[in-house]
Amino acid sequence: MDYLQRLIFLLSAKSKKSMIIYKHIVDELMSEYDVVIITDDQNNKYYRQGINVIIVKDLSLLCLENTFKDLSPFIMLACGWLGIIHKKILDIPNNIYINFHSSYLPDYKGLSVFKHIWANNEKYIGATSHYLTEKIDQGNIILTRCVK
After folding, report:
1. Quick check: 73 and 34 in contact, CB under 8 A?
2. Rounded distance between C-alpha atoms, residue 13 and residue 109, angstroms
3. Can you give the pTM of this predicted structure?
4. Contact yes or no for 100/78 (Cβ under 8 A)
5. pLDDT tens column, 48-96
6. Residue 143 phi, psi dihedral angles, 5° rounding
7. What DSSP assignment string belongs to 43-99?
8. What is the Cα gyration radius of the chain?
9. Where residue 131 falls among pLDDT bands split at 50, 70, 90?
10. Are 109 and 126 within 8 A, CB to CB?
């Protein structure tokens, strides 16, 4: 299996962005890719027939180290994930780890970016996709867009 056949989505129970991704993107991908959802949602609102859903309490995902080794190779897409993924997970070879961040990086890292943008009376907002590293929102930037 090559990279473009298995997609792993990290979707948080507390993130509105995760639910938007789930509702609008996952359906379209199910027919073409092996989709796996990893979530911290104990009520499993992300369950859908045909999708493998893994529920975790450990947001570092260290508890899934062997699972990820078995699923490899894959592309992991973090969308509103609130945890810091453990370095041991990010070091599993042959995988690509990407985060979608709700602000223009490197200006606004971390959580609650919109509160900081509004507090600073910014004239723009943005979004960034970047490779995941063990440091929050510091991986190499893939694409960023700014809107005034």
Report:
1. no
2. 20
3. 0.83
4. yes
5. 767 788 899 888 899 999 999 998 889 999 988 888 899 999 999 999 9
6. -155, 140
7. T-TT--TT-EEEE-S-TT-GGGHHHHHHH-S-EEEEES--SPPPHHHHTSTT-EEEE
8. 15
9. very high
10. no
Half-sphere exposure of 130 (CA within 13 A, CB side): 21
Q: What are the tokens at 140?
A: 């190499």
Phi, psi angles (nearest 5°) of residue 121: 50, 45
CATH for 3-147 is 3.40.50.170
Report domain extents, the chain.
Answer: 3-147
As beta bridge partners, residue 78 has: 10, 99
65-69, 117-121, 123-127, 129-133: least confidently modelled range: 117-121
- The answer to whether the CB of 103 falls within 8 A of the CB of 125 is yes
